[in-house]
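Note to self: keep these together.
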Amino acid sequence: MTEEIEFILDSAKESMTGSIAHLEKEFLNIRAGKASPAMLGSVFVDYYGAQTPLAQIANLNVPDARTITIQPYEKSMLHPIEKAIMIANIGFNPMNNGDVIIISVPPLTEERRRDLAKQAKAEAEDAKIGIRNVRKDANTEIKKLEKDGTSEDVCKRAEEEVQQLTNSFIKKVDELLVIKDAEIMKV
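Structure:
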């Protein structure tokens, strides 16, 4: 195979791996009832005029499966952190005791579990679309090479390899979705 085709296959694989990594990151934000600092990943606090991720201005701990504690590095940030959690609209009711903010993670209702499962399915579908777009781009590049004189057999083989890559990555997305779905629906 030519160097150009090797390059196309390598970059396709890299992009598809990126889609899987993004999906795994998105799945971390879909909470399944157990407390985790990742649940607060979407919370940004107004820190002296700049929107700053919560984890950069406070220490996040999980003392038990249903509680998250947030200890700001500066006591003056207690109220802005509390406000940012409310604005983020992630379903938590923060309690401020003057030193730390305590969040009790409520158990999930059946309806909420179904919503989260739908959200996970949508994220998985987005990942599949990303992978298919990578396939389309790789095949377009291969077609260009074929027009520029690369042998038809080599290009056909490369397209088959791209399809195999696509199939394996889509299978991985489906496997991750099954695991996340089971985690969400487990009571």
